[in-house]
Specification:
mainly alpha, 4 domains, two-stranded antiparallel sheet, globular, transmembrane helix, membrane, transmembrane
Length: 300
């Protein structure tokens, strides 16, 4: 169950050297409006409503340092990389995405309750999460932080043990079927509504899409075994890599209101990419098995 998608062990130190200063710089940018003097470029002839003529890249630098550093910490090999550490990393991946989206789900529920009932305490939580895009900003790196914390906790906890509890997934029926129906139905409905020119304010149901996709992601296949778990690990890692590659490209290529859309789409990119990679690999494996069975029958 070893993963091939890991950086060399020496990259872990580089990760810490990037992430820690990146967090400090990011804190200064977000809470103290700090910009590195002279660290800007003139990108347009004149400013517009949402875009200034010049862009200071301090914020982009901080985010790049944090994301790159955390990726290197999370996905660099241990000195001794074996099947047990691979299981721990899968476990950490499993919990990082799940916990992050559970927190997101709580905020969505609170937002709905606040819309209906207007409870002061709940309204304060929703306001904190939505003001200045607090949740979407923290969502950029929280899955990686949770992954790292969980992984090192498991390493510490299992120093003298050689087994780790298997991951638990929702049953194939009804959760997987329900997740597929809700995800495809909601996604299709959003596309139709968008093409029909429905007011964007009425499309807030889109924020439910990442949650219903989790039913699909965290439910079993009809036949779930150790090999499927290996495919899950690789698919989750690829999803994280691709997600953050897209984010970092958008970080430098998209500005103003456009980057707001990048942040919103970022809520659903990990489960989306995971499902694509996971099911593509399952399809290829089943195709190979079918071809192998056909050859065996021909030999008989």
């Amino acid at each position: 169950m070893r993963s091939r998608l890991l950086f060399p062990h020496r990259f872990k130190l580089l990760g810490w050297l990037l992430a820690l200063p990146g967090f400090v710089l990011g804190y200064q940018v977000v809470y103290n409006d700090y910009n590195i003097p002279g660290f800007e470029l003139v990108l347009r002839e004149k400013s517009s409503l949402f875009l200034s003529a010049s862009e200071n890249f301090t914020n982009e630098l901080a985010l790049t340092m944090v994301i790159t550093g955390l990726l290197l910490i999370a996905f660099s090999k241990q000195k001794t990389e074996d099947e047990l550490t691979a299981k721990m990393r899968l476990n950490a991946l499993y919990w990082s995405i799940l916990v992050n989206f559970c927190w997101y789900g709580v905020l969505v529920v609170f937002a709905v309750i606040n819309t209906i009932v207007h409870i002061t305490s709940i309204g304060s939580i929703v306001s904190f999460a939505s003001d200045n895009l607090t949740f979407t900003v923290y969502n950029l790196f929280m899955p990686l932080v949770i992954l790292i914390v969980r992984f090192y906790y498991l390493l510490y906890k299992n120093k003298e043990e050689y087994e780790i509890k298997p991951l638990r997934f929702l049953s194939y029926k009804p959760y997987r079927i329900l997740g597929i129906i809700l995800s495809v139905g909601l996604f299709t409905g959003l596309i139709i509504a968008n093409l029909a020119g429905v007011d964007e304010n009425k499309l807030s149901v889109a924020y439910l899409l990442p949650l219903v996709m989790l039913l699909w992601v965290y439910s079993k296949e009809k036949e779930e075994d150790e090999y499927i778990n290996t495919i899950r690990l690789n698919a989750m890692q690829i999803a994280v890599y691709v997600n953050y590659a897209i984010l970092l490209i958008g970080n430098f290529a998209v500005y103003g209101l456009g980057f707001l859309y990048v942040l919103v789409f970022n809520l659903a990119t990990i489960p989306t990419i995971f499902l694509i990679v996971f099911h593509y690999r399952l399809y290829k494996i089943r195709q190979e098995d079918s071809e192998r069975s056909r050859l065996n029958l021909n030999l008989l």
